Each structure stands twice: as C-alpha cells, then as structure tokens.
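Q: Hi! First time asking for a complex rather than a single chain. Here are the components, and I think there are two in total. Is that enough to go on?
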Amino acid sequence: MLSLKLNQLKPGMVLSRDVTNFSGVLLLKSGKSLKDKEIKNFKAWGITETFVQEHKEGVSCQEEEPPIDPQLLQEAEAASAALFRHSNASHPIVMELKRLCTMKKVKQKTSSIE
Amino acid sequence: MAISPKDLITGSTKTSSLPEIFIMLSEMLNDPTSSFSDIAKVIGMDTALAARILRVVNSSFYSFPSNVETVTHAISIIGTQQLHDLALATTILTTFQGVPEDLVNMNMFWRHSLGCAVTARILAIHGQETNPERFYLCGILHDVGRLIIMENLPDQAREIIDRHQEEGGLMVDMEQKVLGFNHAEVGASLAKAWKLPLSYEEIIACHHQPSKARRYPVESAIVNLADIFSKAMELGSSGDLFVPPLDVKSWDHVGLNSSVLESIWNQIETQYSENIEIVLAGR
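A: Yes, that's all I need. Here is the structure of the assembled complex.
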C-alpha cells in the first residue's frame, strides 16, 4: 500500500482504501481503478492524499523527475540533517519539511552551477 | 542580582509602553461611538504609518479590484482590529533600532520574523482561524524578546551566541542556562506591558512549547510550526543555527496533513518575497 499525493495519481492506479470527502461521503471505493474523471473529482473535493496498491502491472508510481547528481543530493541531505538535528526525525511533518529543505538546497546548487 | 523578563521591559522607555498612537487607537477600537474616519484621523497623524498601511493593503495578498487610496477605505475593507494589528506590525520594525550590530543582523532578523509572520497567517487561513492578521503580528513579535535581551544585556547576549555556536544545542535552552529565562518570556512580558490581548501574550510565551499553552494551544501550535517553516526555508535568521523542534503533543490541534506542506511551502515563497519588498523596502 502506498500513500500518494493528488498530483502523483495517474489513471490506471488501483485504490487500496475508500476515498471519502471531508463529511464522510464515499467518492470511490477501495479496489476501483482510477480514471481521469475521478482524479478531477478528487481535486474538486480538496482531497490531498489517497492510498493506492503498489506494483500494479505497467503503472509506475515514481515521479518522473530529472536524475539528481548523487553527490549533490548527499551534500544537500547532510546540510538539511544538520539544520534539523534537534527535530523529531520520525514525525511525518518533520520528514516532509526536511525533504522539501533538501530539494530546495539541490535546486539552489544546481542553478548556481548552471 | 537576578533580572526578570519584566525588568528588561520596564527598564527601557522604548519598550515599557506602546507608541502613543497605539494607545489612542486601542481606546478608539474599544469605544463604540468612534467612527472609521475618527480612527483614520489618528493613523493619519503619522504619515509614514499611513503610507505603510496603504502599501500593504494594496499588495497582491489582499488583491482588491481597485486601488485603496485612503486609510478610511482601508479600514472599511479589512476591519478595525485587523488594521490595528497590521499597523502595529509595521511599526514594530521601526521601534527596535540601535541593537548592537555585532550581535544581530537586523535585516536577517526581520526576514526571519516576516517569514514566520507570513507562514502563520497562511496556516491560520488553512485552519480557518478568525482574524488571520493577529497571527501575522504574533509572527513579527515571536522573537522580539531576543532584541530586548541584546539591547539590555549585551554581554550575556554575546555569551549566549558564542556558547550556542560552540556547544550546538538549541539557542532557547542556552538563554535559559545563561539568563534563567528565555526570549519567549521576554516577548510575552512585552505584549503584557503593551496591553495587547491576552492571546498574544500566551502565543508568544508558548511558541516553543505550545502544549503548555492553557487557553490558546491551537494558536501557539500554529506559530510554533510557522517558526519551523521559516527556519527550514532559511528565510533570514534570528540567531538560531537549527530548526526548532516540533511540539508533537500539540500537533493534533492543527491537524494539517503532511501532503499539503509542499503547496504551503510554495505559497510562503511567493508571499514572503512580496512582503519583504513592501515592508523592508529601503531598510
């Protein structure tokens, strides 16, 4: 089971949990496969995250981003780890902020090299 | 001789009471017979303040369809309490000058504060809190206690900075070790001396430990997270080397899902750079 953000959803992925709106009304049942129309519907309802099954044949869950220089990534990760050294590293909010911080550092470095 | 946060506030004429114009403003806000134009007249006495307010109200954050050209017009659209908070936020930036430059880079300090202010306002809007402008003001004020410490106790402030950098702990803990109190308590004493609403005092006092807030835990947790954002995004600096820890216990009050953080992050970047241009222009 994989938790994905709305912009990572692609048609063909299969839900592994029911998706409901904020007042609990069912939008799509677990086990259904996603279509464009339904992803749009989730957006309109302000759904931010859904659970989908992993490794459904032919559907890649990975974001297609340009590859990052591993050394650059390592440096950025070390720098943000130093910044977050007093933070609770296993908390989902902290993890996400740390990831965003690392990505920002990578972006800064990449643009300064170019 | 032990010094308390209160002594620091009352010992300085700059901080012991609000600027005169705000005392008049608060009285008018509490007086049901005063009109928008009465309030506008008071603000108009300080032309620099009036100009700053109009600049902020005309920024794209408020996105009014037409240009707001008078203070009366500004009050009628954003409301008296919001206008008061906005006016005070911009004034605070001019109040604290003369802090030794070897202790703090004021431009970086206000950048951190503005980053926190903008973020707190965005988080408050996400959490559907009332009067989001008060969060902006709390963001501006959250670390002001540091400036008061540096101004009044420069030697101890130097020691706090040096030992914080050598030992690598949290700056707020080093303040506690050196002074017996921290900047959050000093900031709260300032809010009290200025007779700001009780909520501000508690939010500032608890911005590092929102779970200790008795009456305003949600508001305090919002400013705690805003401070974390501002540091994680490296928007300016108030002297801390590290991102402050998240108070996990109070986290449930805010109830944000981690998947929305990226969109909030992008929203902050846009609003922050606009805000810096308006508020720190020429500083």
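A: Chain B has one domain: 5-279. Let me know if you'd like any chain examined more closely.
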